[in-house]
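FIELD: query
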Amino acid sequence: MLAVLVTSAVLASLMVEIGIAVARTHLETVPDEHEDERQMNSTFKRTSGAVR
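FIELD: result
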């Protein structure tokens, strides 16, 4: 019984590590489509009545 528990824990750990590796690889290969927020701020217009 203890051997089954240890084996399942090791397999679960390996599955988590593989999932993290796949996610990291996916995130590194996807092009970054988000602009820098500082660059985007100039495109937004103020909607309030306040004047700078």
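FIELD: remark
The first helix runs from residue 2 to 29.
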